[in-house]
Amino acid sequence: MRKSNISIFVPHIGCPQKCSFCNQNTITGQTKAPAPQDVVDTVETALKSNKDNQYEYEIAFFGGSFTAIDREYMVSLLEAAHPYVENGSVTGIRISTRPDFIDKDVLSLLKKYGVTAIELGAQSMSNTVLRNNFRGHTADDVRKASNMIRKNGFELGLQMMTGLYTSNRGLDVATAREFVKLKPKTVRIYPTVVLKGTYLATLFETGKYTPPSLKKTIALCAELVAFFEEHDIEVIRVGLHSSKDIKDNMLAGGYHECLGELVVSRMMFNRIMQTPPGEHEVYINEKSISKLLGNKRSNINTLREEGYKLTIKYNNALKPNELRIV
Q1: What pairs with residue 173 in β-bridges?
Q2: pLDDT of res. 320
């Protein structure tokens, strides 16, 4: 049975900050705050479409800082979702929030209503980067909130952004290393995208900031995903979801609607390049052939130029993104 989220987007209403990169309406594709009945309707629609029990669902409140919204409103949304946890229709509730809006009282409340996983929008573990991008919290806030979440029995997820204003490859890698110390179960990686109407847009248009190119973004994310996987941390998302709003409002940044696949493709390329040139058999799941070949066969062509003669064989016992070389 495949795991899937029933996503309910709560807009920017809960955030006390206007971060440098934030245009929440564009990111979520909506401006209307959901009512409790919207939660019920969304969940019921998803459950009715799951006739063959193909999916194991989790309700996910995303888009804003869930624990920073009006407390009465937050509880009303949880009350609408909680019955589905109690009757076993969903496995739990996942929320995303800010690290500086986590304390013992809010954790107790979340547990009461069936929340099982909390994702923190940490973005960076450099205080300079956090300050320059108007995050309004520190790296220590991330550490404190992460420890509280894990100690209280919740699944911890951490979200990071690469290529932020005044960050660089070294600081992004350092953030990943700090994340590992906090022992999250999951990580999301969001390369910075410059959207119209944001502070980053002003910096970009005045020549004070240029985000990393797509090529550099793919290379870095491939390194980060491999690093997290080495430490048994699941990367559940790389890049923003494909959206017409994002495409229409994007000025620059490492955005591609298939960024996750491009990153996996680069990881496969890197894995092969770690072996000496020559003849090799490469075993993959047949679903991964396009990722191994690379965009317009770029992986295979470059590997051939570097002296690799590959025989590709299928082994569907391997995971879709797994590769074995002999």
Answers
A1: none
A2: 84
